[in-house]
Amino acid sequence: MGSFWDVICRCNKFDEAQSAAMWEFSILDNSVPVGYMLPEHVAEMIWEGTSFNVSRSERRIHLDPVVRPGDDVVEICRREFIALCEKNVDRLNGCFRKWLLKRSDFHPIRGLDEKLAGLVIASPARGIFGIVTTGVHMNMFTVRNGRIHVWVSRRSQNVTYAGKLDQLVAGAMDPGDNMEPLMTLKREAMEEAGLEVDAASHTVTWNGAYVGKVTAESLISFYDQKDHIAGSEEGHVEPGIRYTFDLEVGPDFVPHPQEPESIDGFVLKTVEEVKRDLKNAEWKPNCGLVMLDFLLRKGEIKEGDDENFGLLRRGLARKLPFQNL
């Protein structure tokens, strides 16, 4: 069995020693880079015939399409990413192949100047370009006989990190969320658990009945390099930030999954079971960070529980090499 410190290590596998060799990824005239790429990914990609300029002397990839007055810069850049994915469909473990069937999943790019706000990237390309991913997670818990119990989700066999444990509600920020975590939570709560979140009052209902009130909690950051468990995304780099929320529900409330194709089911676990699962690597890595943060905040992990206890909170706030986040 592992340790709580291992939970942090599993989601922070990017080695800082690689930083000096990383390539910058910049877009148009943005004032700062928005991503950092591994040299092996740069070398494997086909860049010829695209608007992505390669500067080997500066170790820089620059997306610089022609943009005329009145053009929709968001749409132009979106098309450039699609074309790049098409050109590289058989490269990089085929990570773009499934996405190209629908071409509907895009991720907002952080670190942009205000004039470029709204630019997006094809989701499977995030880890190639090393942009910051943004997600929202909600811990649902209840109290029975004076003890905290946590509702957890088990991921289906049809998604990445198949069979791993997850928060009841968790998902990536969409471009339409305008970088507002509560908007992401509102959408994901309805899609995954049929829960209606009122953005103004933070009240949560299910089929019109009051369930509880969601509270905004921590901001977690990590810097990962995915391993074989991530499937076609193995080797991808992920600097990430996660907004966390808590929802306490009554002991008799039972949530119901709404996405059977991606969720195997919801299970109520004791804190001791959750601790065991964390140490045994049963959780999806970034979801494990969120659960570790929850247990620390609730005082369920104490100094004697881990020899690296004093480093746990610091480990949940990995410094990322970006500005304008």
Automatic annotation (TrEMBL):
Residues 133-291 form the Nudix hydrolase domain. InterPro entries: NUDIX_hydrolase-like_dom_sf, NUDIX_hydrolase_dom. CDD domains: NUDIX_Tnr3_like. Coiled coil: none annotated. Pfam families: NUDIX. This is Nudix hydrolase domain-containing protein. It comes from Hypocrea jecorina (strain ATCC 56765 / BCRC 32924 / NRRL 11460 / Rut C-30).
